Amino acid sequence: MAHIKIENLNKRYINRRKTRRDDDNPETKVGAEVVVLQDINLEFEDGEMVCILGSSGCGKSTMLRMLAGFDRPTSGRILIDGEQVKGPSSNYIYVFQHNGLLPWMTIWQNVELGVRHIKDEEERGDVIQEYIDMVELTGFEDHHIYQLSGGMRRRAELARALAVEPDMLIMDEPFTGLDFLTRMKMREEVVNMHEYIGKTIVMVTHDIDDALVMGDRIVLMAGTPAEVKVSQKILDVPHPRNLEKEPTLCNLREELYLKLGVSHVA
Ligand SMILES: Nc1ncnc2c1ncn2[C@@H]1O[C@H](COP(=O)(O)OP(=O)(O)O)[C@@H](O)[C@H]1O
Ligand SMILES: [Mg+2]
Q1: Does the Cβ of 166 fall within 6 Å of ligand 1?
Q2: How close is the Cα of 59 to the center of ligand 1, in Å?
Q3: In this structure, which residues have their CB less than 5 angstroms from ion ligand 2?
């Protein structure tokens, strides 16, 4: 279970930047308080695939860090299943990280790291195999991470994250650096596994189409400080989604671009 409620969330940082970016703006001075997030209110249902969009630097990663309990809000609170997040809780949240694998170990050994708590060897093996199969790395179990392509590595990272069987998966721009086709495949992979495991996933992406193709809910943050401009459920559009043929998605796409300050979409 992971029902998420974000209430009146505010985050301010003290600017420690040594060089001033803008002399006229008091907020960029060293020691000044920078308001990153202002009055964020959001609610995600259990099992939702949430895609968070927003321009670079608007506070998406900051929000994810607070959701995972790595950072504290300046004011406001985050509730997961009614309980306030006060610190990291590895048993129900898994944060998907780039290069989170140990390169000198095999795929099998890396996935095994997440399931060490399963004492029965056969049962543990079954779980490892299940997730390796799910991300279509069957046959590559004994390959070392350094032997894999970027896309395979990302899939192995996904298998490792899923094997932990967290109640909630947090992903910060998980497709960064992947080539176009691999990215398309990873989208499919994540959508399929989300449908299979049904856990809450909160993913930050800067790609509007990622969000439209994958999300049950799309959240758009914009402005300085960042506010929620859109939080729309699109669960009713079935997968696989065709962006060109689905009017709901076409309209939403245009709206999202406009809200991000782009008026002409190719
Ligand atoms: N630990 C920190 N101390 C000071 N400022 C920070 C810190 N972390 C992030 N910021 C600032 O907060 C803003 C939002 O950052 P971030 O959440 O990483 O944006 P995004 O992930 O949307 O690109 C940026 O202006 C960044 O410089
Ligand atoms: Mg970020």
Answers
A1: no
A2: 6
A3: 61
Domains delineated in the chain = 1-92+168-176+194-266 (3.40.50.300), 98-165 (no CATH)
Percent of the chain with pLDDT strictly greater than 70 = 93
Token couple for 111 = 């996935």
Full-model pTM: 0.89
**Per-residue model confidence (pLDDT) at position 122:** 97
- Please tell me the number of the ligand nearest to residue 60's CA: 1
- For 117, residues 6+ apart whose C-beta sits below 8 A from its C-beta are none
Distances in Å between the Cα of 73 and the Cα atoms of 10, 41, 52, 60, 264 are 6, 13, 18, 13, 36
Closest Cα to atom 23, ligand 1: which residue? 57
Displacement of CA 210 from its chain's centroid (Å): 11
User: How many Å lie between the centroid of ligand 1 and the Cα of residue 95?
Assistant: 18
Q: Whose CA is closest to 93, among 185, 158, 169?
A: 169
